[in-house]
Amino acid sequence: MRDAVIVEAVRTPIGKRGGSLAGVHPADLSATVLEALAERTAVDPGLVDDVVWGCVSQAGEQTFDIARTAVLSAGWPESVPGTTVDRQCGSSQQAVHFAAAGVVAGHYDLVVAGGVESMSRVPMGSAAGEQSPLGLRYAARYSAEFPSQGLGAETIAERWGLSRAQLDEYALQSHARAAAAVDAGAYQEQLVEVTTPDGEKVSVDEGIRRGGTLERLATLPTPFREDGVVHAGNASQISDGAAAVLMTSSETAARLGLTPLARIHSVALAGSDPNIMLTGPIPATEKVLRRAGLSISDIGTFEVNEAFASVVLAWLAETGADPATLNPVGGAIALGHPLGGSGARLMTTMVHHMRAHGIRYGLQTMCEGGGQANATILELV
Question: What's the chain's Rg over C-alpha atoms?
Fold first, then answer.
């Protein structure tokens, strides 16, 4: 049976909203990581069977199948196609799942999976405009009011008994771990420098804050509930960025002289309450572990997207995972969350962390709009 392996994984730095990457078209951000994959592997881009690309706000500059636009912007042959995926925040993790399935099925020999989001240029919610995506039947079953992720995060904190201090402590940890990763050069191999239209070279993540305190976080307003616990300091940052992985089978990798980094061991999907929206990683983790025949203690590192600190801490409470192995080099609270690019960003970070520390199994999961989650287990090769 064919397998699916990752032979390279790269990402751009993650820019803050209105920051250094705000002037870069999302297709150009995407092209930057595509170019890097080809350069680092010396693979002829003409051999790539498809580019499967995640993007959430498919409006304005992110419409017209941005995957295909990215391929052409990278200067790759016109023979290389691309398709764009929307599974909300998990879009590029889903792109990896689709790409892996295509490799295993024999539909692809060489494929790129990844994603992008420029939240500076295409604001969150742009695709819907003034119209609600919820129809009468959805409204009859749930509510005509569009679900709020912020209120979902507040509900999770309430249900799992998480205090504001606990959320803020976790947020400070995310920044501290990310800062330590920068100082140790842990991101160096995965990062691709971006050149902006005005010639600026961007090579560092912009969201990491050093020296934060609980006292400072305690002054921030809680916009979702007047007496709430969720605020900008313990939630993911609005960001710009792209990430990509090059995938093939072990057989094709050997034929092309490529070195596999990790194998897609198991994948799973789960649905959950669409109003709370953010609890899906809990059943998705249970499902992927069951499918893989592994236990939580078999996993050496976890990437659980830090959409909100309450999401990650609830997941931790339910799974019993070792906190030291959870987002060990920081997460979206510190780095940022460029929606459609985050799934591939987490996977890129996890692959490089596994390689650096000889970790056999890594597990990634993300909460997603509509009450969903992807989960992926990688095995070091």
Answer: 19
**Residue 77 one-letter amino acid:** P
String of DSSP letters for 204-243: S-S----S--HHHHTTS--SS-TT-S--GGGBPPBEEEEE
The pLDDT of residue 378: 99
Does this model's pTM top 0.90? My answer is yes
Which parts of the chain fold into alpha helices (H)?
26-41, 66-73, 91-105, 136-141, 149-159, 164-184, 214-217, 250-256, 281-292, 309-319, 339-357
Which tokens sit at 335? Answer: 């780095």
| Whole-number Cα distances in Å, 208 to 11, 134, 227, 332 | 16, 36, 27, 10
Helix, strand, coil percentages (3-state) for the chain, rounded to 5, are 40, 20, 40
Cβ 352 vs Cβ 188: under 8 Å? no
Report how far apart, in Å, the C-alpha atoms of 199 and of each of 21, 196, 245, 290 are.
Answer: 11, 5, 26, 49
Using the structure block, give the residue that is written with the tokens 């498919």. 58
Tell me, what DSSP letter sits at residue 128?
T
Backbone angles phi, psi at 335, to 5 degrees: -85, -40
Catalytic residue set: 89, 337, 367
Tens of pLDDT, residue by residue over 276-311, are 999 999 999 999 999 999 999 999 999 999 999 999
> What is the pLDDT at residue 140?
96
For residue 19, count CB atoms less than 10 angstroms from its CB and return exposed for 0-12, middle for 13-18, buried for 19 or more.
middle
